[in-house]
Write a structure and sequence with these properties.
With 276 residues, the chain is α/β, with parallel strands linked by helices. It is built from six helices and 16 strands.
Length: 276
């Protein structure tokens, strides 16, 4: 499988973001890719809720989703949209941070809503409250593609290994982690956590990330990674804004899992006995 990653700097203009992703689809096609991967919030990245309210739509009216589906169908390659902000007419007014797997006919084959939401106050003075804007997903999703069974996750999910345990128990051999990591947390934890998830699962991890200074004022870490089942980093995109391809040998999954059969050796974990 040849994977293409589009490390981008999404802004507050959905049309411009759509143009960039569609161009990336065709660049990926020209490079011989089977599938293109994009970051979290690829279609619109804005922490100004009031401004975003005029631009966040449901799936039917989502310009980025429509145009990317058309591009996938015309180019004949699969596209993983890391995530889009989608309004679902919830009673509490919150949106969904939704990932889409689109096949080479433009059909949406799977959707996944980010489960774990980033609520934190950082030492830098930055404060993030995803749960004030987004509702958490409630379903773990793996999807079959012509290449492998793929487990879906988004950004902050990376810190919760039980999700990846469930995905690999369900047969996933590629784990996706599209992201918009902050710079401080990226520098501290991004590489370590992604390699750990790959090693624990004996699976490939593909993590396409946002990078650089965004129109809403935030800065993201970049360093889109592809990690193999042994924990070797096959690709690290640093801080470039580019489409880059990497070849993935899926036979490595079986070979690594035979050497270290951690999945086969898993046992249900009983309740903790606390002794005082």
């Amino acid at each position: 499988m040849r994977a293409a990653l589009f490390q981008m700097t999404s802004g507050i203009d959905p049309s411009a973001n759509a143009d960039a992703i569609v161009d990336a689809v065709w660049r990926a096609k020209a490079l011989g890719a089977d599938m293109l991967f994009t970051p979290e919030m690829a279609g619109y990245l804005d922490r100004d809720r009031k401004r975003a309210a005029d631009r966040v739509t449901n799936e039917v009216n989502n310009l980025v989703l429509t145009r990317v589906r058309e591009a996938a169908a015309k180019s004949g390659i699969w596209v993983h949209l890391g995530s889009l902000a989608c309004s679902d007419e919830r009673e509490d007014g919150r949106w969904s941070n939704r990932s889409f797997m689109i096949d080479d006919s433009g059909m949406i084959r799977a959707r996944y809503d980010k489960m774990h939401l980033f609520d934190v106050d950082l030492p830098t003075g930055e404060s993030w409250r995803e749960s004030s804007t987004y509702a958490p997903g409630e379903t773990v999703v793996a999807v079959d593609t012509p290449f492998a069974r793929v487990g879906l996750s988004v950004c902050y999910d990376l810190r919760f290994p039980d999700l990846y345990r469930a995905l690999t128990n369900a047969g996933a051999t590629i784990l996706l982690v599209p992201a918009a990591f902050t710079v401080p947390t990226g520098e501290a934890h991004w590489h370590t956590l992604l390699r750990a998830r790959a090693i624990e699962a004996g699976a490939f991890v593909i993590a396409c990330a946002q990078v650089g200074q965004h129109a809403d004022g935030r800065t993201t870490y970049g360093h889109s990674l592809v990690v193999d089942p042994w924990g070797t980093t096959l690709l690290d995109m640093g801080d470039v804004r580019e489409v880059t391809v990497v070849d993935i040998d899926l036979d490595q999954v079986a070979a690594v899992r035979a050497r270290i059969p951690a999945i086969a050796n898993r046992r249900p974990v009983p309740p903790v006995v606390t002794i005082t």
